[in-house]
Amino acid sequence: MNKLITYYRLAREELNKVIFPTKEQRRNAFISVLIVVSAISIFLALVDFILSASVSSIL
What we know:
The protein has a domain at 21-59. It is 88% helix and 0% strand. It has helices spanning 2-17, 23-58. The chain starts with a helix and ends with a helix. The mean pLDDT is 95.
C-alpha cells in the first residue's frame, strides 16, 4: 500500500510540472495541421486524377 501512495504522490508531482498549451497555441496548431492536411489532400487528388486519366487513355 505504501508503494501505491508513493506512486500516486510522484505522479501528482510530475503532473504539476506539465505546462499545458494556451488557447492561442492550440488554435495555431489546429490551423497549421488543417492547412498541411488540406495541401497534401489536394496534391494527392491531383496526382490521382492525372494517373487515372493517363491509365484510362492508355486502355
